Queue: 2 jobs
Job 1
Amino acid sequence: MSIISRFAGFFVGDAQADRTVPPSGFTANLTLFSAAAMAFLCVFALALSLATGRLAARWGDELARSSTVRISAPADQVDIQAQAALRVLETTPGVATARLLGAAEQRALLEPWFGPDLPLEGLPIPQLIEVTEDSSGYDAAGLRLRLSAEVPGAVLDDHTRWRKPLIRAASRLRMLGWLSIGLIGGALAAMITLAANAALAANAGVIAVLRLVGATDGYIAQAFVRRFTLRGLSGAAVGTALGMMAVFLLPSAQNTGGFLTGLGFRGMHWLYPLLIPALAGGVAFAATRAAARKTLKELP
Amino acid sequence: MIELDNVAYSYGGGELLSDISLKLSPGSFHFLTGPSGAGKTTFLKLCYGALKPTAGQVRLFDTDVRTMSRDDVALSRRRVGVVHQDCQFLDHLSVAENVALPLTVAGQGTLSEQSNLKELMNWVGLQHRADALPPELSGGERQRAALARAVIMSPDVILADEPTGNIDWEMSQRLLQLLLELNRMGKTIMVATHDLNLIRTAKNQVQARVLRISNRRLQLAGAVL
């Protein structure tokens, strides 16, 4: 209870106490601007991290558990070889299901390249078998050997060849996103520390008077800390709002797009950027407090 | 209240004060005199805890200043009022707010204190200047405002460092009368000054002891005057 009331009291503030430090219009605006700019950048870094995280998870989850067997054989052999391949797959440990893709499904897969009107029936399209692994997975090299022995026209594509570098790239990108957020937080802390030090230096006379009339270090520090925390908080709130609006207004092309157009927040992720102002306020609080305590300790 | 026991203070260069012992008893009136640069300001700073002695012991209200934290020193300022020659104010606040500043920082800036504040402003003759800003005040008005600020917490001791250094004789006398009134109310007063006329005028009205700093030591100089 007392923590909550102290917390509330910090923001409501003591109007008298707040007036003891003279107002500073210009530098206040600079602090607000820095906090807003950093929060704006932070929204994008967060969107990038979340989007690449989603992408890596999707590739990892959906594609890791599925692979494809392609049967390329003369037209009269396709069905026989497909059945043989299915039999091999059904007796392979680690394969959960193996399913022949129907003509309609195959056409849907090819449609983006050839258009909807192409008469596929006349073309030697290979037959595809969708293979889903169970949680233990199967031995791809062993399966390839068995297939080549029993079904000469079958080629196993387990997707790992192109999936792994993509997932690695996505993870790296996500890590860079988080690193950026960390750097943005550090830069904000540095800026607020500089601003707070400048304010403390500019108000050395005020601090001397306050000391003389019996103000404790805590009281003097509070006047500065409260001011910079509120600036960090409100600046970051404006920057976050603008950043979220910009992300919201990004043209969406989710169905066909890659990860770039997928940049944005989905569902509950829209709540994450709302933490930015609070974190910025926390950073400003800690930075100013440390700067004020250090400065005051050095004064007589 | 304030006790110094074999106190010495040295800057990097050498010893400024040495072997100083003094006990300020309640209700006493002291003058501190000596040539400029003799260490009057340093002596006063030792008395209100702004400086810590390099040797010996200073006790503020029975507490060794060396054992006091920064906050303890700050809190002791509420019992020791200090007036400087070049008194500093918060220039963006009105005179009345500056005088009430010790109450504000002590978290006692309540309405009930407002009448006290008004009374105090009347007492120092600044009631008509209450809403002015400090830079608009004359030297004498600044000194009286500083005195009002020093006494608003009703301290036990008032230390004044050359309070009449920048003001004319008439204004000096007026300030002295305020200090004498405070002494009659039981406050302990210590005034550092090199104005011998001021000391003579005071001695006609109060049992004042005169201390002199010379050759780094504190001597009782009552007989000289």
Job 2
Amino acid sequence: MILTNHLPALQVVVPLLVAPLVVLMRVRGLPWAVATTTSLVAFAIAVGLTNTVLDSYSVTYEMGSWRAPYGIELHVTSFSALLLLIVTAASTLTLVAGKQSIDTEIEHDRQPLFYAAWLLALAGFTGIVVTGDAFNIFVFMEIASLASYVLIAAGSDRRVLPAVFKYLIMGTIGATFYLIGVGLIYMMTGTLNLADMEARIHEVGELRPILVAAGFITLGLILKAAIFPLHAWLPLSYTYAPHIVTAFLAACSTKVALYVLLRFDFLVFQQNLPAHEVQFTVFLMPLAVLAILIASGVAVFERNLKGLLAYSSLAQVGYILLGASLVSVPGLTAGLMHMFNHALAKGTLFLAVACLGMRFTRLGLVNLSGVARQMPWTMAAFVLAGLSLIGVPGTAGFISKWMLISAALQEGALGVALVAVIVVSSLLAVVYIWRVIELAYFGDPTEASQLANEAPAWLLVGTWVAALMNIYFGIIPSFPLSLARESAASLLQHLP
Amino acid sequence: MTNEFLILVSILLPLAGAVGITITGRRYPNLREAVTLVTAASLAVVVWALLPELLAGERPSVRVAEMLPGLAIEFQVEPLGMIFAALASLLWIINSIYSIGYMRGNNEQHQTRFYVLFAVALSAAMGIAFAGNLLTLFIFYEVLTLSTYPLVAHKGDGKTVVSARTYLGILLATSIGLFLPAIIWTYHVTATLDFTPGGILDGHLAGPAVGLLLALYVFGIGKAAVMPVHRWLPAAMVAPTPVSALLHAVAVVKAGVFTITKVVVYIFGVELLFTETSADWLLFAAAFTVIAASVVALRQTNLKRLLAYSTIAQLSYVVMAVAILKPLSEIGAAIHIVAHAFGKITLFFAAGSIYTAAKKTEIHQLRGIGRRMPWTMAAFTIGALSMIGVPPTAGFVSKWYILAGSFQSDNHVAIVTIIVSTILNSLYFLPIIFYAWFCREEVAPVTDHGEAPLAIVVALTATAALTVLLFLFNQPVLDLASQLGGMPK
């Protein structure tokens, strides 16, 4: 069929075009229905693309039939497919399940704008993932970021405004750094196409500007990916954003930035900068370790449930980066698996938070004391996802942690130290998840938690679908594993 | 029904029971208790139905899922696991009868939660018993920890919660911080985690690394309470008595020593440990724990705390017996798991019986109580004698085998430890028995009480009878224990 040839373009174009239409829809409930349908279509396209990629390695698409490197080229590999699935599935599931939660947090007359921003964010994220053009990535990154600011700022707590302002400033700095880096490369090579860049840097005699560009790009993307110590924007934004928005963004936004980072470092720079893998490791591994330990430590003392989970996210991004910074196929496979599994676990946790958010205006841990008696299903899903986050065998989180540890152990003495880091931070994860569980199950009920009743059925169903996926992919991980393996192999194909 | 099916049923049945208890619990307490008893009885039937085939030399196994190569959820029935499963399922029935008497007699709160979690703990115990590899065992080990935490914290007041946190903290921290790394290390060098007769580490690991890995296992398996990771056990004494019985006899500590035995026999392999001098420390650590815990027990004034320290000592008996690395002592270890379970559950039942009837918890309050509660104190006496190792009780049989094993290898440390600890055991148990039977009450009790409720008396009589019966009819356990794979003759 003709249409299937255009799937890479449709992946982005569909949400991008529907977004302005949604703004015009004034009928109650319609914006949600249209946005959800669009997201579902995007998910279907992602599934279609994944199928193609699994058959034939990768898909290239020339925008408007302009030949690369003159035109924009879309390039879908198994790595992009993995991210596309994460992004579109997160968006679809949170939208389908989250209608009531969104309705309580966002007034009806503002909803068309909200859903339009959501679709723009979706288009932005998927755009970053499918495109093979460095400047195109910047454009989509801006679309996604601006839409994210709007989504986060829709939170009902007034403290969201300074939080989102902080995010805006930091996000802009990150994007600018990225742009400077791309500009430097363009100056030296005259191309913006990633594949072309890779080949042309080879011909450049003077590598110093490229090295500077690598620095700018890495730094900018680290900021976007909220890697310690450039994470300051994330915790507050996640805490005060509408719950469903947090669930969506926590599942995918930082991972998309990491995706770009890995593509640049392994595909563009790896072959061209001498000893790049050593620099990559030396620079990023300490950051990953610090992120894992410090963020987990902070989460132990955090008083707000969403803040706690946000800090936990920072630690989990550290795991992904740690896997990548081993610069080995098993390590990178583990990191990519953790992208998938963490999206599952954290998405579920924030959906459970959305369930709680239906009944509580404040999500401080003390407010939730004794809530499990009134909301048993919500808390049971929370526990399941929490176990996955900790990495208990039988859940998805275990698979990636196990692979990460196995990969680390291949590095000798350093590996043993890394295993110690992972074990310590898993223990910290036990502590912070347990704090929530102990309060919810064994704490004395507060007034609010006595009045609370179980969350709306539909939201619960969505939460449980996500929770059960944690179990499913913990027992049968072969599908994400094959994608992750192939991605890691293709990213590292140039390594000596 | 095939054996594979029976294995899965044995793990799922208690869970189904837990669901049934939840449903019936809110409205019909009598029905709830009936569900517990029926589940316990059917579990025992299922587990014991696996026995004949096992004795015939079969090793039924079932693989549920394989997540990564060499990393699977798998169950296999082997003799040691069978002993543990049969023990736990049998004692669950008796413990349930006792629980009914105790929980009602003391008007405890949250009874439904109690029975539900008890059933979950039993499911975990079955999973541990039948686990076919270390990973599966680890999963159920953690489930057991988590499901018993609310049981320990049952009362829910501040002091109880603090103690329960100690319980959970030590068990979780050691298992994740030491046990799990040990498993990872094992997998890293051998690429498998299956329990294999003769061990899997031989040829993959040598020198001090063996001793270090063994240390990770022994201290990581905190449930075995080898000093210094024993603190959780006295802390858990805040729990209601049926829970103490669960911890000390039915499942928890037994899971600990069972796991250590399994790791020594099926992961390291007796041969490897025998030749590797770096692993010799285990015997001394266990011997030290036996003596030290007994000395601490001497100084206790609270009956349940005394029993807790006695348990710590008795557990290290098992570990020490395993560490002797002789066939006879390994058999002794397996029998001691059973013998100690019968004896200690009797002692705890008696302690709970005294608490229910007389509200007494301190040892000095027990003067003359034998006349008011003859059944209870008779059972207590039998249990105490078994702890000391006096015939005709079960404790004698296991001590006999452990001693025989020590003589076989001329292990003087073990022999001296057993003699000294027997003396210490007599020193702390005999005075209680003497007070109870031969002294007069100093002050008359507030209420003129007699025996505890019938359910309690029935249960503790049954376990006391088992303690004596195991002395007389120990052949089935012996048969199973002597089938333990990988023993150097």
